[in-house]
Amino acid sequence: MLIEVVKSKIHRVKVTQAELNYVGSVTIDRVLMDAANLLEGEKVQIVNINNGERIETYVIAGEANTGTICLNGPAARKVQMGDLLIIIGYGLMDFEEARTFKPSLVFPNETNNLLD
Fold first, then answer.
1. Catalytic, out of 8, 22, 58, 90
2. Domain contains 59
3. How far apart, in whole angstroms, are the C-alpha atoms of residue 87 and residue 58?
């Protein structure tokens, strides 16, 4: 049996931009993507801590070390600058593999960077 489990999570990252006139997606700083083991084009769920919204979209790589978290297209209507988000990537795996699997968890600082 296959089950869907959390494979990647960026926890409490701040929205830096919202671009309504864009095809869609979320742009994430490349350093955060790599640390969370997220791929460009990967489907993610975005949970807005400030308003409870949940959005599904896909990842676009942003410039490294900029702290960029930009919601594009219709998702831009679901956030405000400065909102805190949790970005989650899921994976399918065998039930037994899932018992020991360890997800990539990232806890950025208040400027969306990994280093202080």
1. 58
2. yes
3. 11
